[in-house]
Amino acid sequence: GMELISLPISGIMQEFDSVLQPVFSGLKKDVTEENIQARIRGNLLMALANKLGALLLTTGNKSEMAVGYCTIYGDMAGGLGLLSDVPKTMVYSVCFWLNKTKETRIIPENILEKAPSAELKPDQKDQDSLPAYETLDSILYFLLERFEGVDKIISRGFSAQDVHMVSRLVHRSEFKRKQAPPGLKITDRAFGTGWRMPI
User: Fold this and answer.
1) Nearest to residue 65, comparing CAs of 95, 91, 85, 90?
2) What pTM was estimated for this model as a whole?
3) Residue 194 to residue 43: CA distance in whole angstroms
4) What is the pLDDT of residues 5-25, one digit of tens each?
């Protein structure tokens, strides 16, 4: 029941590439170009929200916000973080529950079956740079909501490499969360006013 609007960004991206070419010449493409795409999307969505008098909802869930798997001024652009306190695995659970309780599928099956991806480069998958979401969400639960240290979480049987990486990403991403729109509180410890971590 939602209106679908498709706005191509390839021409805009080509303009960015052209303008930045004198400075980027000889440098390999990397996350910079991926983030530009996300920021183009954010600008277009904010323009639609402004013009149509709508509130833009950000798409980041708690798992992504925790580890900074989001682009500042890109997918973080908006006025309300509807999922910012909902871990990724819970997002999936809610989607499956919603589909089960309705007569028709609200969330298309192909969305739920495909590997999560920021879709900023070919064949990109979240798990290329993050632990599986089941693992990530478990580590984040003990780290953020149970206030457990790295050693204690590792003693629970998690990979030391995963725990250290997640802990480092959480601390490194605080500056992004400070600039994120407000979100709805779902868990015992949400980012926002109840979260006091220095940058």
Assistant:
1) 85
2) 0.88
3) 29
4) 999 999 999 999 999 999 999
Structure tokens that stand for 168 in this block: 């480092």
Distance CA 15, CA 12 (A): 5
Neighbours of 74 (CB within 10 A): 21
Q: Which of 52, 41, 96, 48 is nearest to 74 (CA)?
A: 41
Determine the residue type at 138: S
| Residue 89 exposure: Cα atoms within 13 Å on the Cβ side | 11
Instruction: Let me know how long the chain is.
Output: 199
Q: Determine the pLDDT at residue 188.
A: 83
**pLDDT band, very low/low/confident/very high, at 134 (cuts 50, 70, 90):** very high
